[in-house]
What does this fold into?
Amino acid sequence: MKPGELRQRVLWVVRELGSCGAPEVCETLRDERDISLNAVQTVLTRLVDQGLLVRTGTRRHYRYEACPTVEAAKKRAEQAAEDLLSQAGQAGLVHFVEAVDRLNPDSIVQLERILEERRKGRRQT
It folds into this structure.
């Protein structure tokens, strides 16, 4: 498994499920790979610490949801893009598109739409 792949997949699962517990996330991931509940809980805790998920409930009954702030997502995306481009350049962009396609194929269509809107905006100015 590549570094960060499990983290991204857990984040996508929580976004897809909405409010959910670690066992639900683990069950969803087990359709794809063999993984322990402890590993899922560790990743969920780290995502909470990073401000990407919100945790509610009590210790044995935590519920997780995607962080509701758009600003936090924008900030993390900008930092990730900066890191990607400075460290890997064009090859990084290729890998980014491949990862997006693997994690959520529908996002490729959205990405194409966003890029086309950007191109149109540049042509008009």
In short: The beta strands are 53-56, 63-66. The longest strand covers residues 53-56. The two ends are 44 Å apart (CA to CA).
